[in-house]
Amino acid sequence: MKVPMDLADVATRVKEKWQKFRDYNFGSLKDDALITFYDLAQEYETMENFYRVTVWVVKEFFGLGCRLYLTCGEERLELVCDSEHGVYPEKPLPPPYVRLESKPYVANRSWLIPIRGNLILVSQLPFYAKDRIIGLLEFYPGDSISPSNKFFFEKYANRLGYNLHSKIIAWQNIQHIRFINSLVADIEHNVIIPNISLALYLKHLRDKIKTLKELDCLCQARQPECPPLKEAQQQFWDLIGEMEADYQTLEQNYKGISLFIESLFRQSHFQKGHFVLRRRSCRVYSEIIQPQLLLYLPKLRERRIKIDTRAGVMPDEDLPLSVDKGLMSQVYANLFSNAVKYARRNYEGRKNLAYGRDLLPDYFGPGKDGVKFSVFTTGPHIPPEDVPHIFDEGYRGTNTAGEVGTGRGLFFVRNVIETHGGEVGYEATPGGNNFYFVLPLVTTPEVPPLAEELTSAPEAAIR
Q1: What are the backbone dihedrals phi and psi of residue 185, each rounded to the nearest 5 degrees, phi first?
Q2: What is the per-residue pLDDT for 27?
Q3: What tens digit of pLDDT does each residue of 194-249 get?
Q4: N or C, where is the chain less crowded by C-beta within 10 Å?
């Protein structure tokens, strides 16, 4: 049979592979094991079920225990699944006798075989794979495995490696696309929508400039029917004061949006498919909370929401933490934005906002302290059926009628805090609702003192 030129190489490889399988002469049991693995590897879509298929084919067809380890970076392994317990959500480290080797070996009465990935696709893995090793298969008891079965299991590991490699990359790509879609929504929520408010400030500024020009013409004319010059001059200076305030507001918004753009449009986010933190030591109150609070002062005043200082707001010490300043600033921007929209009157007829922090010793384990940051608003408690979902993507509670929103604010908060290794939560407290997050107490000891601390400007501006 004449082979077309464009099929010649493939035809040769097909014939070679066919001859190899004839030489292997695995037999019906092993052939059925491979076919079963191939079919179920395609049928199950999740990585967890793929892990289960890998170990259970060995158990079902050969009666052997099987453990699957995967490389997790820095030439380390973690146990992901075995035929006794199934999938391990926490992915523990392997026992001491399990080590990353380039060739099969015997240890602790087990037969261990390295799993190699696809040479062409190895650069796309999310971790470094030395010698293309992406995992390890352990068969036990190893002393009962015949030489022919050992040879078969090596071939089984090879087939497994190519399938596993493709699934890792496919799942990574799916997660990458999801993150980019989510990031685009965050950009709209945290940058584009807030930027619309700048148009309002610019309109006010343009109107005031127009009025100034009219006053200038009025003063130059000095017509008898005009108001006294002194009164016009006072109006002139009042407008200058208002314009200076507008300029400061615009400048604050510009700095805030510039910070958000820098933190959301980082190339590393798009390359990795998740938030990549740029940690540095920041004084949380003066560098993160206060600038965001100042941006929301006009909106808080407009809705007659006051900052309640009776609870002390923040301790006098401005705590330095190692965090991503841009992303953490957006966390507070989202929390203050929600406070503006959802604060309601309390039993005293007042609408209040409060914020603070508390140290939580050993919160993340012995010697691993946490810091709890809270933003409280007065109003009815969130309905119990909504509470488990308020940090979910796109979720809007049943008590949000009349307020514009996308359901992304608290989801963004959760995403950023969990990337920092922290936790988020909600508490129904007397008189209102408290949203909080807890961060590990990661500090940098050498922090230069600030030349000037603005400790009461936001509170005083609202009162």
Answers
A1: -65, -40
A2: 83
A3: 666 666 667 777 777 777 777 666 666 555 555 566 676 677 778 777 777 777 77
A4: N
User: Which residues, including other chains, have CB under 8 Å from residue 430's CB and lie 6 or more apart?
Assistant: none
Residue 323 tokens, joined = 């965090």
| Residue 92 DSSP class | P
For residue 156 the two structure tokens come to: 């089984």
CATH number at 5-174: 3.30.450.40
Distance CA(117)–CA(123), nearest Å, equals 10
Neighbour-count burial for 426-436, b at 16+ CB within 10 Å, e otherwise: beeeebbbbbb
Beta strands in 285-347 (DSSP E): 305-307, 320-324
Residue 454 CB-half CA count within 13 A: 13
Cβ-count burial 187-212 (b if 16+ within 10 Å, e if not): eebbbeebeeeeeeeeeebeebeeee
- Reference 264, options 326, 202, 308, 313; nearest CA is 326
Under-70 pLDDT residues of the chain: 1-3, 5, 73-75, 118-132, 169, 173-174, 176, 184, 186-201, 215-230, 232-233, 310-317, 397-407, 443-463
Whole-number Å distance between alpha carbons of 69 and 82 = 9
Tell me how far apart the alpha carbons of residues 135 and 101 are, in angstroms, rounded to a whole number.
10
Please give the pLDDT value at position 193.
60
Strands of the 86-87 sheet, one edge to the other: 86-87, 77-82, 65-71, 133-140, 110-116, 105-107
CATH class for the domain made up of 277-463? alpha beta
Cβ-count burial of 242 within 10 angstroms (0-12 exposed, 13-18 middle, 19+ buried)?
Answer: middle
- Tokens 């078969």, residue? 152
pLDDT at site 274: 80
Residue that has been written with the tokens 């699934």 in this structure: 167
Residue type, 220: Q
The one-letter amino acid at 85: H
| pLDDT for the residue numbered 402 | 60
Check residue 452 and give its pLDDT.
33
- Tokens (6 digits) for 345: 């009157």
Instruction: Please state, in angstroms and as integers, the Cα–Cα distance from residue 97 to each residue in 64, 109, 139, 236, 346, following that order.
Output: 19, 10, 13, 83, 63
d(CA 459, CA 306): 8
All structural domains of the chain with their residue ranges: 5-174, 277-463
Distance of CA 81 to the CA centre of its chain: 26
